Structure formats: structure tokens, C-alpha cells
Amino acid sequence: MLRSSKFKILNPKQILIPKIQTPLIVVSVLISALITVPFVSLSNAQSCDYYVVSRVIDGDTFEISDSRKIRLIGIDTPETVDPREDVQWFGREASKKLKEWISDKKVCLKKDIDETKDTDKYGRLLRYVWRDKFFVNAELVKQGYAFAYTAYPFQYMEDFRRYEKQARGNNRGLWDKTKQEAWEKEVEKNKLLVKTCGQDKTICPDDARKHIGKYKTVRFYAAKSYDSGNAVFLNSKNDFKDADNFTAVIFKEDKRKFSKDPADYYWGKTIDVSGKISEKEGRAEIILQRQSQIKILRRF
User: Fold this and answer.
1) CB pairs under 8 A, 24+ apart, for 198-201?
2) Which of the 8 DSSP states describes residue 244?
3) Which residues neighbour 242 within 8 Å (Cβ) at sequence distance 6 or greater?
4) Region 43-175: CATH code
5) Which of 48, 128, 176, 296 would you call most buried, defined as having the most Cβ atoms within 10 angstroms of its Cβ?
């Protein structure tokens, strides 16, 4: 037995056990990994700005209550309103679907994770759009209403590429080649029918300005149609500002007298429109107040 010692026996409560701390670098790596994983969920996106949608312009563009225009990030839908182009296959269906989902509804707008991408060259806000947990941009691609627009990188690019591949593989929406061919044949048929303008006591739309103030029947192909809410416009030209454009106008108060959705029903058809030709900003038009003033030409 030792009578003396240089060692001191400690009480267990006096023993200090060092705390193990996770190095900051490990935490940083974990956080970075979580940020870069592209979960398609509302919680992963940036903070919400809530607005009511006042007007849907086409399948990938709309206007909010303060009159600013929103362009959906990461998608592109077939053209319907560009004055330089014909209406493209499935463009009108995409526009109708977007209206169904968001028109007059409060939506959540979110920026891309790269917040430097705030607006496009036209000044439109670039945003992801959500309704609760429903991711509008993604669903348009998934259901075949839109292409994945990958010219510039964005937060969900790889997801959208995968959604497009799945939609294409299942012939959804705009990827249905059989329906596209039938649609194209119908459009071509109507473009041939309009060449009969001048027959059957009709006049051609380009000649309508020569008959201002007279009652005539104008035969034309409805190249573009638009419902502003106050009126429906059926135009003979892609660009309504064209000097030779002829327009048939149905005002809101008379809209109920016509087909359920005149802008959709008469678009892409060759039609005979009868009435008094008037002039509006140098262009010819006829105001329609009765269903009997308009007729679809179905055969030669």
C-alpha cells in the first residue's frame, strides 16, 4: 500500500467530458446539398407574392391585378396571339387550360432560385405559379400543353425535361400526332374555302373598305380571334392592325345570342358575315347583334 502518491483521485462528477462539435464545413456542405436538390414542392420555392389573375393572354402568359404581365418560367406553349404568326397546333387548348386553372383566382408567384432572372426582354415578370400545392408550370408540361423551355438554365430544368419526355412518350396533348394531322387538314380546308370569296354575293375582306356604309356579306377566314371581356373580335389577318384586316365584332351584351364561346367556336373557320360595314381606325368591320348574321361555310 502506498503511503504517499503524486496522483490525486477525482470524484466522477469532477471529470470533464469534451463536447463533440460538428465542424462548420460539414454543416455548410449539407445545407448546400439541400438547396441544390430540385424538389418540386411549394416549400422549396422562394417566398410567395400573392396576386389575383385578371387576364390570361395565352398558354404561358397572363396579367395580374396591378396590370403587370407574368411569363411562366421554364415552359413554352404553341403560339396563338403573335401577330407575325398563324395560330399553332394546340395553342388554343393550352390557353383554355391556363384560363381554367388560374383565371380570376389568387395565385402564388415565386422567383427562380437565381433571383437575377426577374424579367424578360419584354418587361414581363418571370415567375413560377402555384395554386396551393398545384405547380402550374410543371403541370402544363406534364399534361402535354407546353414544351420544356431549356434555352436558359432554371431551377427545375431537369424535372421539366423528364416531364416532357413522359408526355411525348404517352402522346399527351400537343404530342398526339394523329390529332395534329387532322387539325392541320381542317385548317387547310378552310384556307381553301376562303378563296371562294366574291362568289355567292359575297365580297372579300380586303375589299371591305371600299364598301363603308353599305350592307354586304363578307366571306373570310377567321385567322385570329380574341375575347377581351367587353367584346369578341374575329379578324381576317394575324395582325389586326393590318390596313386590310376585316373584323367581325360581337359586344358583351349580345354575346349570349351566339354560340357559347364565339371566339373559340368561329376561330379557324371560313365564315360569311352580313351587315353594315363601318370603319374603325381606318379598317373595316361589321358589328354582329344576331346569330343569323354569321354562318360557317362548310363546303365548296
Assistant:
1) 200/272
2) T
3) 283
4) 2.40.50.90
5) 128
Q: Residue 148: exposed, middle, or buried by beta-carbon count in 10 A (0-12, 13-18, 19+)?
A: buried
The Cα–Cα gap between 235 and 228 comes to 13
Equal CATH topology for 43-175 and 192-296? yes
Q: Tell me which residue has cell 395553342.
A: 91
CA distance 64 to 53: 4
**Nearest alpha-carbon partner for 180 in 89, 77, 88:** 89
**Is 166 within 8 Å of 188 (Cβ atoms)?**
no
> Is residue 139 among the annotated active site residues?
no
Q: Which of 92, 124, 219, 283 is catalytic?
A: 124
Do 269 and 187 contact (CB within 8 A), yes or no? no
**What grid cell was written down for 126?**
418571370
pLDDT recorded at residue 40 = 46
3 has catalytic annotation: no
Whole-angstrom distance, CA of residue 88 vs CA of residue 96 = 14
CA distances from 197 to 208, 268, 277, 300 (A): 11, 16, 16, 11
Known active-site residue 71: yes
- The answer to pTM > 0.90 is no
pLDDT lower than 50: segments of the chain:
1-45
Question: Catalytic residue among 55, 63, 79, 131, which?
Answer: 79
Domain 192-296 coded CATH 2.40.50.140: yes
CA angle 199, 201, 202 (to 5 degrees): 70
